[in-house]
Design goal:
- With 149 residues, the chain is mainly beta.
- The protein has a single domain, classed as 3-Layer(aba) Sandwich (Trna Endonuclease, Chain: A, domain 1), CATH 3.40.1350.10.
- It has a 6-stranded mixed sheet. The chain has a 3-stranded antiparallel sheet with strand order 7-8-9, with no helix packed on it.
- Helix 1 runs parallel beside helix 2.
Length: 149
């Protein structure tokens, strides 16, 4: 797992910064889970979601996790759902530890799911081993894999 990782755009030949990149292997094949984070008081907009989807189109990202401190607007949630599971919208559960805000869990944002959407919210999250550990545990929509940090 690398914070502020640079991945190469396969079309433009330039590097693009990703907030967090989790790299590992699944069945011997390399996998990159990219995490982009927005920390605003308002819900993440469809514009931001579409910018992130477009940004990762030609990066080596296999799964894109979009995390918003304040959740996602309904159009943003619809845009994520239309990506067929390759993109997930996550909202952190923040708790106080010794007076400091700490993310306890990340979960799929069910608040702005359109009522007509037939699929119920799915559990999603990233569970990280503390700094003393050597591996990160990733649990995502039924997908479970242990990846090297």
């Amino acid at each position: 797992m690398t914070e502020s990782k640079f991945l190469t755009d396969s079309v433009l030949g330039i590097t693009r910064e990703v907030d967090i990149a989790i790299e590992g292997e699944v069945d011997g094949d390399p996998i990159v889970i990219s995490v982009e984070i927005i920390e605003r008081s308002r819900r993440a907009s469809v514009n931001w979601v579409q910018q992130m989807i477009r940004k990762h189109l030609y990066l080596s990202t296999n799964l894109l996790l979009l995390a918003s401190k304040s959740g996602f607007s309904q159009p943003a949630t619809i845009a994520v759902e239309r990506e067929g599971g390759h993109v997930q919208a996550l909202t952190p559960e923040v708790i106080q530890v010794n007076g400091e805000a700490v993310v306890k869990n990340l979960y799929v944002d069910p608040q702005s799911r359109p009522p007509s959407y037939p699929t119920p919210p799915r559990t999603a999250g990233i569970h990280l081993v503390p700094a003393t550990g050597s591996r990160a545990r990733i649990v995502m929509s039924g997908f479970s894999e242990t990846a090297a940090p």
